[in-house]
Amino acid sequence: MRKTGALQVEVEMQIPFFDVDMMEIAWHGHYVKYLEVARCALLDRLDHNYLQMRDSGYGWPVIDLQIRYIRPLLFQQRVRVRADLVEWEHRLKLNYLISDAATGERLTRASTVQVAVDLASREMQLASPKVFIDAVERALACAR
Questions:
Q1: Is 1 within a domain?
Q2: Could you say which residues form the signal peptide (predicted)?
Q3: Percentage of residues in the chain with pLDDT exceeding 90?
Q4: Over the chain, what HEC string results?
Q5: pLDDT tens for residues 47-106?
Q6: Number of domains the chain is built from
């Protein structure tokens, strides 16, 4: 089992027709989109989403993505996508769990790693910017 994060969000969604093949199974590449929906919800919870990241002078590209496909996602299936914040001081690491909304069955697990890049110099940062750390700490304080 993957590490549970200091902060979590969960979003529910239904697998749409345009994401599936003729066997009504979601194409594996669309899973990244589902993770992004949960990641954006988590960043909103931090009150430091992509627009605020950009406005603070930093981009946050994904530098690592890992996905373990356990069971297929099916057309019209309702799923929950949970994102867990597990690292934030030197990089942004999130763990994800996609599960069936009705049964709770684990369908997919994943993780992403993002790093801060100074938008002006295009240099990767070896530590997360203070503005981001402060946002995480505020959100953690509110969650307690």
A1: no
A2: none
A3: 95
A4: CCCCCCEEEEEEEECCHHHECCCCEECHHHHHHHHHHHHHHHHHHCCCCHHHHHHCCEECCEEEEEEEECCCCECCCEEEEEEEEEECCCCEEEEEEEEECCCCCEEEEEEEEECCEECCCCCECCCCCHHHHHHHHHHHHHHC
A5: 999 999 999 999 999 999 999 999 999 999 999 999 999 999 999 999 999 999 999 999
A6: 1
